[in-house]
Write a structure and sequence with these properties.
Blueprint (H helix, E strand, L loop, with lengths): L2 H14 L6 H27 L17 H17 L3 H17 L1
């Protein structure tokens, strides 16, 4: 499987999982996903501008979009859905997700 296929699937496939969530829940947790996009985009742009990291492979013709607009907001929405009202469970789930993003 090519890198382009992997990057585009990281961008598209997570959004299809929202069909498994109730419509009311999608409406309820969408602001959290949008906030995750906003904060992640700020960090991403700061890191690229300050040359903290560099991307060797991007989803052509878009740059840095595959996980920023695909995996991050949808995963954040699912985590908030399952951990709402249980702060320590949220902290553990968020830590594990961030560890996964860091290792990949």
């Amino acid at each position: 499987m090519s890198n382009q296929m992997i990057l585009w699937s990281i961008f598209i496939v997570p959004w299809f999982t929202l069909f498994l969530m109730k419509k009311e829940d999608v409406k309820r947790y969408m602001p959290v996903g949008l906030f995750a996009i906003f904060t992640s985009a700020l960090i991403l742009e700061a890191g690229v501008s300050l040359e903290w990291w560099k991307y060797n492979e991007t989803a052509f013709p878009l740059q840095n979009i595959s996980y920023l607009y695909g995996a991050i907001p949808v995963a954040t929405m699912w985590i908030i859905k399952f951990t709402y009202g249980r702060f320590w469970l949220f902290v553990v789930a968020d830590f594990l997700l961030n560890l996964l993003y860091f290792c990949v």
